[in-house]
């Protein structure tokens, strides 16, 4: 089938030879493409939109022939959610809870822990069970509430649920975890086991009280030996896991050896020996006293990077055995010290702040290994049995480090962060590995299994209903589609193509048939819309309208003769346009005869008349449409454009409008128009019948000519007025011999004040009197309050308020009073005390200062400075307790002259360093205190104007801050900008130290353009918890437990050991009160 453009061209080819008045019904059918052959199936890859008879590729493929029943529904097989036989149950990832799921699977496979947890005494559950045994009907079923109750129920579901995976949201909610934020996995493990130990310790059963200690708790001692007397000082301690440094090590044995290695205490770190009663050189090491049944090794993969100020992950390969002999590391070998690997916890990802957690766990019944990845569980056997091996997220195969070779019985991993070993015991009887679920928990599991089976049945019924509905729709569509094609000589109708597609698309709801959007202004089918409709048989149309309803049925009588006639006229004019364009352009080159009267035409219209004609023809065509189908601003691309069709940057809408004035008459600018012959004008009138017409004898607009004369007269008057004012106020115009308040002139005691805005506007008028309006009013009311009082003090006018006023000599004020309208005279007088010779001088303004309005004005300015947003402050790093050392100004070459420093007088302050202290109270009005809101603009003694821009120094950076931002947040910004940890930052502004991290910058007096001095202390010894503290992650798990842990990058000796309780109770409050 021919492309759409070819069909369009063929449908209107007849219009080139047929006049509009000679159009017949055959021409109309050609325009609507009634006779275009219909496409056969298999000949079109997609529907031919230009052919109204093509019914192929509209979605019928899915309904013809044999159809798969699965195509009638989008419901997955509910049996895919069912747990397979002899498989484990997965856990749903609630967003970022994969780290929780891995630990829950590891603890579930600890049979001793699971058995003990089932023995946890629950008074509510026992009462519920007794009532059930006595056949008492309960209105409410038992539901877990506490953390232990939720953990009991979760383990019961993992053991006997029929689901392939279960939802742990009950336990996660009880723990108070944020499901959208990934927490520290190692910290969660410690806190959860501590919480569980605290809860179980309150049980009556002694075996249940100590189950956490029996399973996970071991003992070691920090032993310090004096080198002089040999006295040993042991400090016993308990541990639940051993935190091993992996940096620089290759296997687990090396990590344990470093953990237990001897440390020398010498020099300033000498040990105070109680026997010697003095400080002595000594050695210190950790001695393992006893090991638990389950031995957890935390591999410290996440360490603090001092350079970046953030945590980073160590991707070091560590080798670990399947069987581990801890005998060589234990003090005394009375107990069994051989351990078997039972679980490997893995972190996938290159970042310490994101990634995914997976667990490899050994089944205690079969000794088979399984990979637990949230909902997915996979048995690891054969080549898949590679413990601790998981590809990193967002890391290509080329960038991955090559895995070292491992001996038999050993495994290597770069992502394992926790290893769980189980103590080897003698053969356990089969009965000991079978753990029964308590009856009250099994009843909850049975209820959940019942709900699951009901859900499966409901999904199966929905699938069946969807299939039955689809089969019925299939028969209906198949029957109707065969009736759609129309035969020659039979009646037909038009229906929307999009409606047919939606009718054949079972996923969308079917609306009634609506043809109203395809109608022309005559209420019939518009020829341009033929590509959006399809021609079908009247029999099929009757069935579709009877079943689905609709409006505006379009039959054979809907072919619009008027629209076809108008389009024919447009096509003929377009074809004639190129010939007329060449003829007109040749005629305008010849001059008029002496006795011939011509017509005025705009030069811009003459240059672009062909494009205007095309646009006009398009507009005439659009007028026949009911709805405008063209995009707003779209232009026709038909025809050939000439070289002189540019609009000269203007948008011509109507031909010859460029010679019209505002009054509708002939424009007085003769350079914008020219005279053409009557022959040329008649040609153009054929395309623009409504264009304005002016003969050569027409006069220009009289009103415009009068206004032009008046304008020239006003311009001359303005020039005369400007010359007179300039000669009278020459010094004011040239800014020469200006009075200043800094050095009061001796020849007068009175100076007059006007707004600086008045002087600026007056100078603009003097420079360009023909382009600017003359200034008539001084406008001193701008400097007065509503009560008529003056708004500025003498001191404020010496500083920031000097930019608002201009000072005048009395003689200049006399001239201004005569030449301009003065609403209110403002002056300042110097009053000397003649009775005394001490030189006491006072200054008085007229009108007097309005103190009430002045205080309100200052208070509002101070308030604005405290309530800013997205303002710039500058942080300057101070080295060696000095503000700066040989500062180098970073200015461009073009700014050097403007920003050159002039010599400062004694006592003069550098504006780059002086900052106004902003308090919460209103500033008192006195002679010595004033608010400086802007740099001084008055000329200094040397006459050089200072730049108002801030000049950045080396070691200084600009930060964007807000007034409601806390000092803590600012310190984090500074840490990223200067790589100085918040702990080491000493900030000050104008000599005031900023210490309250919880206070806002507005309350601390930090205003826009402030300069904050940063002095960096020497870094503290331990950086492990720094990032967590400032990222708010130190106590991320919201457990009701007071014991906190701090992870250190390396093992810490007894002397350097900082317990986490001291850290959280003393160090953090000192930072953030």
From TrEMBL:
One annotated GO molecular function: cysteine-type deubiquitinase activity
Subcellular location: Cytoplasm; Nucleus
Domain Ubiquitin-like: 961-1012
Skewed-composition ranges (Basic and acidic residues): 632-649, 901-912
Coiled-coil region: none
Pfam families, per the entry: UCH
Family: Belongs to the peptidase C19 family.
Record-given protein name: Ubiquitin carboxyl-terminal hydrolase 48
Originating species: Cyprinus carpio carpio
